[in-house]
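Target protein
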Amino acid sequence: MDSLQKEGEDPASGVLFTALGRDYRLRFGFAAMRAYPRLPGATGEGFLAAVRELRKIEEDPDGFDRVHRLFLAGLSPTPAPEAVDEIIDALGIVPAVALLGRAIRAALPESKAGDSEAGDGASGEP
């Protein structure tokens, strides 16, 4: 069974979770934030712009691709790009986006980008 783990999380270390029988960490350190714009399909979009756009996931034709790229940028161990979709499917899209929101807030605890833009759209809460 796949799980999202909250208890004992260290925000500076990202968010730990298990999917497909493997443990992963979703963390947006400086290297992941810098790498995001260079990922295939990012078309130069910066990490903070991607975080802001998460709010619009339902209307944005690039929304699910953006979720994929953010997972790819922040996951450790780093899976093959095609495996990211399998991980997200195993979690479920709503829990996966909630996990993404937690990892963003952990990386940017005092940032408006982390709290307001990602907080609502990526929290998994209505």
Summary: The CA atoms of residues 41 and 65 lie 8 Å apart. DSSP finds six helices and four strands in the chain.
